[in-house]
Amino acid sequence: MNTMPLEAATRQLIDTNLKNLGWQFTGEGRNVYLEQPKTESERKKLGGKRPDYVLYSKESDKPLIVIEAKKKGERIDTALEQGIFYAKQLEAPLVYATDGVFCKSFHTLGNTTPKLNGEDVDEFIREALALKFLAKWEVNTVSPKVQYDRRELIRIFDEANNMLRGDGLRAGIERFGEFANILFLKLISETEDNKKLAGKCTSFDDMCHWDYIKSLKPNSRIEHINKIVYEKLNALYGTTIFTPLLIKDNDILKSIIDKLDPLTLTDVDSDVKGDAFEYFLKESTSTKNDLGEYFTPRHIVKTMVRLVNPQIGEKIYDPFCGTGGFLIETFRHIERNMVGGNPKLQKILREETVYGNEITNTARITKMNMILAGDGHSNIHMRDSLANPVYLDNITRNDKGEISRDNENNIELSDGNYDGYDVVITNMPYSQKTNYGSLYDIPSTNGDSICVQHCMRAINSLSQNGRMALVVPEGFLFRKDLAKMREYMIERCELQSVISLPQGVFLPYTGVKTNIIYATKVNQKVPSKNKRKDFWYFDVKSDGYTLDNHRRKLETPSDLSKYEEYRKLDADQAKEMMQVGFEAIPLDKVYENSFVLVGSRYRTPKTQDVSYPLINLGDDKYFTILSGGTPSSSNPSYWDGEVNWITLADLPAGNFITKIFSTERTISTEGLNNSSAKLLPINTVVVSSRATIGRVGITKTELATNQGFKNIIINDHSIIMPEYLACILTAKKDEMLHMASGATFKEISKENFMTIQIPLPSLATQKKLVDELNSYQRLIDAARTILENYKPSIRLDPNWNFVNVGELFIVVSDTIDPQTETGIVNYIGLENIMAETGDLIGVTKADIKTIKSTKKVFQRGDILYGKLRPNLNKVWFANIDGICSTDIIVLRPKTAEILAKFYCLLLREDVFNAQVLNGVSGGQLPRVDISYFLSLPIRQVPFDNQQRLLKQIETEQLLVDPSKELIEMFEEKLINRVNEIWGE
User: Fold this and answer.
1) Residue pair 512/471 in contact by the 8 Å Cβ criterion
2) Is the pTM of this model over 0.85?
3) Do 269 and 370 belong to one domain?
């Protein structure tokens, strides 16, 4: 019996979720225990403390999972720590902390977040899967064969694409859709086979099965599929999405079937239905730009779905649903949290819950995706949402709750959804033009405006909890031409939060910077006295993945988890929210500032001893802002003249402020006069406003810049010092990044640049700050000079003999096979070894089972030498055991008389590297031949001299190393001192 003060709603969600996964709370097979463990000995271990849930295997008394429910006002991390304590006492491998929707997990043996198929575990799991985590923290339920076959699938699609072109099908969605039709037959057949293995009933007709189709003669397959298979599938799923194949050539169909047939694409042990089709859609669209699909990463989708927390009985709509990612996750979310076994609720979930439009023929593929993922396909339509706004303005309910409307306007309400939707969740198309703006309250040809208006008006004003979560481009938050649209949105809903996503989350599809807008009470008339006075702004620095085309998983936690923990945005947690990065943005300030929703625009000093007036860069009383330009490259008379001219490359990364005394490139006066470039006076502050945004320099000679700069001429140096302005602008880099927009590269418009505000203290205060910062910079520069000029130098006695490297060292060829080994190991790649210094940057802790290929084994005392050019000067003395990349040569001394740490210095010297370069060969990835490497001459230094020289170098390095610490310390002081002017 539950006696602890858990919130009833949270407990009910946990119970329902566990029951749906097959965990038993009562009876002979009971394996869930509430508020106490199963046995008396375990209760003694806990000393009377009571975990909320302890889950066991039905086959033993071994605890598998401890669950702690978050209580009101308690952080998930606090609950997780409590759960970890209980789990370690009980020797349970898995811990969850949850508020019923948002979960965090921990593996007590791996001492980290458990991973399932490469992703963090963020949901409860069934018993059979939990058992796999008994001895390891990372589990793969997708077998190696299935993983390999899925990669093969993408290669086969590329081959099929060429074959379908030969059959006259158009590039893009026509060929893509035809291949998806055939692939669906393969996947649904595998899915049905898995159902039979699990003893489940099925209505699937054997005549539609892949094996049956394959058994037919090749010249009768097209007719069988078109006239029998698709007719039966349409009847089975109550749809018309299966239309006759466009393929005319029997041999092409045979070839595609033959290539797909050996593959196994679904895994009976997988907990995610339809993941094979999702894999295909994601991987194929990431390289086929003509398909026009942007895949929203699954972790972003999950965050947004948990944010709106859709419930059974609500109608959820995605007007730009693409291949159905949001709707499928919505379907899964509701199904997980819905009481199972209720036929009426199941029917509502399948037929009256998720709705979506997709403008292209992708809608058919979306329906297939949803069928494979569990259903919910019946309300997906091929439709241009913007051309079909949901008309709700004239709809009311009478006292009995019945719908009525104004018939005089003859409003057509499609698909029976005349009262709109409860939730809209979508990633809308960006920066489109539309011809349907006249159908909306704020007419426009701007698609960003009309997309948001469409989402808003689709929500029923009579819904008790109408809400929306939209991914919008950054420009929507600040563009001047969208100010009225933002006002319209703020007036017609409660804007709860804006989540700023880092640029790169949608790579490789697009580099556009985006945000998530979350709003509630959409289209409800909320009295002004009851409306909230601010909204929360949350800046995500990391979403847990690298921000490049590869999007690799990082070991560091995602900032999205911080947002999710506080996603309810409870006012009584405001203090804690601000401590983790939330900012409360006052709406009255938003009204005064053209309804700009970028949080950094409203950052004010937190603690400021002196209140300095703020001035805009656009104030012509103080500044003149000039852009740069580039003369025509086709006219040689414009170049190599008497005018200094700089590009973004002249402001290197890592410098606090660059002083520009001269330039490598010049243009002529004629070139200056025939371009938009302007001659800038000495002490102009130049700011990088394109690509490398936020770097700052001061001109110490007259010069011009290219168009990548915004150049600030100070009109009165008796009021503002250029050095002060340059220093203070370094603190505005993040704000500048938020202002930037553009697809190919990001750029700040002059209009937005001029809105940047800076504090204006007295000239004496400015001078004091600049003098202090200059003193820090001189110390930094001096320390950098020491580091740049110091290189270990070893004076070798010319009488010491030369020997071949191979006479002193053996090349270690030991490898590790991830298919047969287990355990956690240290992994070193070339990227971990710093050139020239041999320092190590990070060590990856890797589970051998996750290693994709064979690696070399090294041990403490070995030398790791990079054999891949340009990494030939990457040499590291191993002070740990581990495995490494095959692009590294592992050298082991043949005798104890050879000090590997000393020979690392010789192997890193320029003279030796010059010899190595002579033996480099290969095309795109040139590397040194190992036999050649072992034949290179190197001095054989007597053992006692090795010891003496090594000690000498180590003594020198002890004197040099503090310079690194000094640089880090004073760079931090420099930034902190600038931030103090802002009160931060």
Assistant:
1) no
2) no
3) no
